[in-house]
Amino acid sequence: KAYSGNKYEGVTTIKNNNFYNLDTAVDETRGKTVYSGNKFSGVIENIKNPIYFKKFKKNVVSQKITSVARRGKNILIDIGENTILIHMKMTGHLLHGKYSYDKKGNAWTPVEKGPLQDPKNRWIRFVVLLSNRKHLAFSDLRKFWKITLIKTEKLHESDDLKNLGYEPLSKKFNFETFKKTILKHQNGRVKTVLMDQSLIAG
């Protein structure tokens, strides 16, 4: 469940919520409930926008996480009617564990010793407290990330996902598929073609 979140300058926090390293935390987050959250400043349809964050928080608090998936560079957290989409860009990543908030220093600090204390994980931008009393935190050195809410039934029709290409880890993506995709753009620069998300996502 998600209860209430407070806005702290430069930090999006969901009071009493948990963040996870997605690779190891999918099972831990499934079935948990979001408790509270907070925000940033920025763009429409992104929690960096304080006005949009109010809408986001209203629709997320107290909702149960039913599944977690990935499409391209987007993490998709299904909470029923809506899905939380997190685009981590180049340097963003999710963390899971227990954190404490220092209001004076305006900073979240991991309570437990381990990988969460790695300096690379100190750029906490968004925090969610889950019903298991752990936190799901989003860390990003840069600020190009995006967190938004999309109707689950329209998720794959959204601008964020509808134009994405093949998933390289899917069974449908084999050598023949890869070759055909690349040869359609054989006059393009190798790096540009490989990084084109409309061809190969991720």
Note the main sheet: 5 strands, mixed
Q: Residue ranges: pLDDT <50 for 5 or more in a row?
A: 1-29, 36-43
Number of helices: 4
Tell me the number of strands.
11
The portion of residues forming beta strands comes to 25-35%
Taking all Cα atoms into account, the compactness measure Rg is 18 Å
Average pLDDT number: 77
The end-to-end span amounts to 30 Å
Helix content: 10-25%
Could you spell the SSE succession in H and E letters? EEHHEEEEEEEEEHH
Shape: globular
Order of strands, main sheet, comes to: 1-2-9-10-6
Structural class: alpha+beta
Secondary structure elements and pairings:
Elements: E1 7-8, E2 11-13, H1 22-29, H2 50-60, E3 67-71, E4 74-78, E5 82-87, E6 93-97, E7 99-102, E8 107-110, E9 124-129, E10 135-139, E11 146-151, H3 175-183, H4 190-194
Parallel strand pairs: 2-9
Antiparallel strand pairs: 1-2, 3-4, 4-5, 5-11, 6-10, 7-8, 9-10
In a nutshell, what does this entry contain?
It contains 4 helices and 11 strands; from the N terminus they run ββααβββββββββαα.
Describe this structure in words.
The chain is built from 4 helices and 11 strands. Strand 9 and strand 10 (135-139) form a beta hairpin. The strands form 3 sheets. A 5-stranded mixed β-sheet has the order 1-2-9-10-6, covered by helices on one side. Strands 3-4-5-11 form a 4-stranded antiparallel β-sheet, with helices on one face. It is α+β, with helices and mostly antiparallel strands and 202 residues long. Residues 1-29 and 36-43 have low confidence and may be disordered. It is 16% helix and 25% strand.
